[in-house]
Amino acid sequence: MxxxxxxxxxxxxxxxxxxxxxxxxxxxxxxxxxxxxxxxxYALGEWRPLLFIPYFLMFLLxxxxxxxxLYVIISNRALHSPMFxxxxxxxxxxxxxxxxxxxxxxxxxxxxxxxxxLLGCLIQMLCIHYNESCQSTLLLCMALDRYFxxxxxxxxxxxxxVSNFLKFIIVPLIRNxxxxxxxxxxxxxxxxCATNVIDHCFCEHMALVQLACGDISINNLVGLLTAFLxxxxxxxxxxxxxxxxxxxxxxxxxxxLKAMKTCVTHIIVMICTLSFALIAFFRVYxxxxxxxxxxxxxxxxLLLYKMFCMSKACCTG
Length: 317
What we know:
By secondary structure, the chain is mainly alpha-helical. It has one domain: Up-down Bundle (Rhopdopsin 7-helix transmembrane proteins), CATH 1.20.1070.10. The protein is built from ten helices and three strands; from the N terminus they run αβααβαααβαααα.
């Protein structure tokens, strides 16, 4: 009698434990984090606040350098040509990059404020990725500017009028907005129940999507499509433009040699921008620690400033 009672009790207990385990699994699947922690540099522990000083200085240098360049372009009427207007727009885009995430990162270093909501993370992602896409579009516009200036000089001012130039730039900008908004929207619909710790100093698409516990195949597909249709397509058109320019210059001899100097400068700017963007957003996790990419990004701002100054020297010299 007692043995039957104990067997019945054990059976009921086993069923209860099994039911509890199933319920925990269901609850885990239904829970989706809405608050995240940006876990960059947390391995440094008590030494982490010291990072505020070098990163603040780099941030300040980036802002001051780009503002100075923008002031020079605006205040000097001789620099109000289409090429320098594009450089000024690139400067504004370069200002937006650090402003979007570095202040939050600095506060995290100093006070440990590393929390961010899902909505805030998505907004930051939208701004950062659209900012980067605008860089790619502006590099394409610079290539078109040089193409018209060197290969079709008689029609340069006609093509570079505001009304005509907007026809070239409006389609890429709409493309950027549609694609980036799409993958940000898809990322916002995912359930995040694995963890709420982002191994990064700012919100980035792949870093966030990897925390999802749902199917992310459509997110990966849209992400790859975006990477192909924005930077890859822009790079192809930029390359074609410069190939045509080089062929035209070789045929004309020394006629377009001075204009060719600005092309070389733009090519250097393009290579630096694309290279550092690839390091920052398509890094190899086991070779380059995620948090180290910010050093590259911030130093890149100073490099771009020096390149733009070289461009001014080449064009006015």
